[in-house]
């Protein structure tokens, strides 16, 4: 009788363990009802995607200053009195590519090829001065010239899309180095309008 009783107690204990395990499984299954997302189920359609972040693109680009940081290293102007060559008398023109000149800067005399010259003022009393605003889709041309009494010399130019100044970062200001022909280098600074 004692063996039968011990076997019954061991069987009861196993039965209790099995019942307890079933109750635990039932609680876990009820806890993950169909209205909740199940992280273990890749086919669960109740998940939501994170919100889409839309990066704004500028509508307009305003150029506040043009800095020439390199020009072609050569003699530009013969001196009429001394019969020797002298340095360029630099000025800048800017406008839409294939269009009219919107801006013509003041002249800086006797520039060094590796010097740095910032232009914001206009030439003379007429014409536009910086800042100038262009559409984001415009194509802009900046030209470098050597001022001469008779016939100015072309010192190089850069043609670029206004959109190339933008880096998809919703910035409000920019400073971009542009490389043109004839070894010219220009830094354009300005702002974006959204």
Distance between the termini: 92 Å
The structural class is: alpha+beta
Helix content: 10-25%
How many DSSP-defined strands? 11
Outline, from the CA principal axes?
rod-shaped
Largest sheet: 5 strands, antiparallel
Give the mean pLDDT.
Answer: 83
Percentage of β-strand residues: 25-35%
Unreliable stretches (pLDDT < 50, length at least 5) are none
From the alpha carbons, calculate the radius of gyration and give it in angstroms: 37 Å
Notable traits:
alpha+beta; single chain; 11 strands; five-stranded antiparallel β-sheet; 194 residues; 1 helix; rod-shaped
Protein model, in words:
- The protein is α+β, with helices and mostly antiparallel strands and 194 residues long.
- The chain is 15% helix and 34% strand.
- It has 1 helix and 11 strands.
- The chain has one helix at residues 2-31; strands at 60-70, 77-78, 85-86, 90-96, 101-104, 117-119, 132-135, 139-146, 153-161, 173-179, 185-193.
- Strands 1, 6, 7, 10 and 11 form a 5-stranded antiparallel beta sheet that branches. It has a 4-stranded antiparallel beta sheet with strand order 5-4-8-9, with no helix packed on it. The protein has a two-stranded antiparallel sheet with strand order 2-3.
- It is rod-shaped.
- The mean pLDDT is 83.
SSE blueprint:
Layout: H1 2-31, E1 60-70, E2 77-78, E3 85-86, E4 90-96, E5 101-104, E6 117-119, E7 132-135, E8 139-146, E9 153-161, E10 173-179, E11 185-193
Antiparallel strand pairs: 1-6, 1-7, 1-11, 2-3, 4-5, 4-8, 8-9, 10-11
In short:
The chain contains one helix and eleven strands.
